[in-house]
Amino acid sequence: MPLLALENVTHFFGGLAAVKNLSFTVESGAIRGLIGPNGSGKSTVFNIISGYLELSSGRIRFESRDITNHSTPSLVELGIARTFQATQIFDDLTVEENLTVSSQVIHRESLAKSFLRSALLDRDETQLRIRAAEILELVGLSGAARRTARDLPYREQKMLELANTMATGARLLMLDEPMAGLTMQETREAMDVIRWARDKGATILLIEHDMRCIMQLCGSIVVLDHGEKICDGTPDEVRCNPQVIEIYLGVDQCST
Amino acid sequence: MTWAGQVRSITGFLLLASGASLIPVVTDDFYKIDVATTILQDLILAMSLRVVMNLGLLNLAHVSLMGIGAYVSAALAMRLGLSFWLTLPIAAGTAAFMALALGMLTLRLHGPYFFLLTFAVMSMVQLFFHSYLEDIFGGATGLIGVPRPNPIGFGGFTLPLVSKVSLYYLILVFWILAAAVLIRLEYSRLGLQCAAIKQSEAVARAVGIHTIRCKLLVLTLSGFLAGIAGVFFAHSRGVINSSDFGIDPMLKLLVYVVVGGVSNIWGPVVGTIGFSIASEFLRSFHFLETLLYGAVLIAVMRLFPEGIAGALQRIFATARPSPVPSHAAAGT
Which of A119, A128, A146 lies at the smallest CB-CB distance from B191? Predict the structure, then answer.
């Protein structure tokens, strides 16, 4: 059974169908790409899956559960977390506090209990502390734990957003252009982080414009155009698909 | 949100409470004790308003929640003869329930809509006590002769709560309890979630915080505390009127919180005590009071938009050497 399955998902903005009859699945443990030209509906698909937009019709399943139109926080509790195209972190909190807030969802505490517990991780929460430290180490933020997120350079803010998403303990990470604006060296590091998350048991759904990245990371790719799926296959199949070349890739990369 | 910060806050409030408990010892001037009583009552109101405003919710019906506490408790005591110790939880609970209902009606609205709707609710509550159920709430006259709190009995010993000094100690105890709850909130997981919501509701939801539930809980808690202040107000003064819960007292509270600083737990403390004492010295210019409030509000918003407590915190933070970067990473 796939981890995530979209079945005939449709979303209208007024009279315009931003996503039309879209179906695809994401297998557990995969790194799945979602590509397409600007305005093809990639971020809309993310917003639908993560509960920021309601479906006009269709169904979404996570494992065996129907999660159609669940609220964002309850989706995070189930194990679906995302990043945003424009980096979104808690600007005025420290790196450490960002991770503490993000790992709270793992407890699934009642509000009453969260009132009684200290904001700092308790001594008995060694597991969470080790995990948070491990994530920070991995994204290269160990030395910046006490710094205010706002003061970090762009790359580190992007890494912090990724770290927050991982700290929720999500099994499905949806990453919206994690490489945007990074240098080649930084992109390679970010790719390592994504692979690490996958090796730790997470499944990844990735929107990215950097084709080299997508082709190297993803086992399979969905291509969207005007809200419709035009291709779904391995990187090689996508690269050689004439329709994808025409509307998106521009050049025939089949031979390279 | 560090241990040091929490310890500093608790120490500060303990010092303030001990200082406050000495006031009736060092002075027997009833006027001064009256002023101090009002300050403590306003502190409960301002501190409970601040936690809601800190979530980005400008709740203009806060004073109405106080009014509901006051009217419900006074009416129960006068019409049914119930004891103060019974009307206190009922009235504060009613205020909390109304806060919850207000939240459920309005929390999906943002920015100016929440503010406008609570403004309308405030006017409606005031009109209701002024013009409806006159047999119970006294109409335009209000309620006169609200009984003093019933004495507390420990076995054979009873403590009467009639004198100004005993009422002062009663509100001091209420304030200490309220401050304890609010400090706990500030440094709890829920407090951290609130800080996260304040920064960005979208991100807070993205990491799994049930933002609406959090806001409802804080609003309800704030209503409960405002209700307690209202109950005390009614029974200590003995007279209440719908105009006590209108726009003027609401604006005064708002100025206390905004000038003191919304983002800091000390903000409403600095604002309330500072303004109350200053207005005592400026009594001869009483007719200028509202004008002065306005002028100070504008000046503070221009010079220190984070409020006086926020500005002080910033000055002290830059004066202190920055902490050594931690290699222990999260959670220390």
Answer: A119
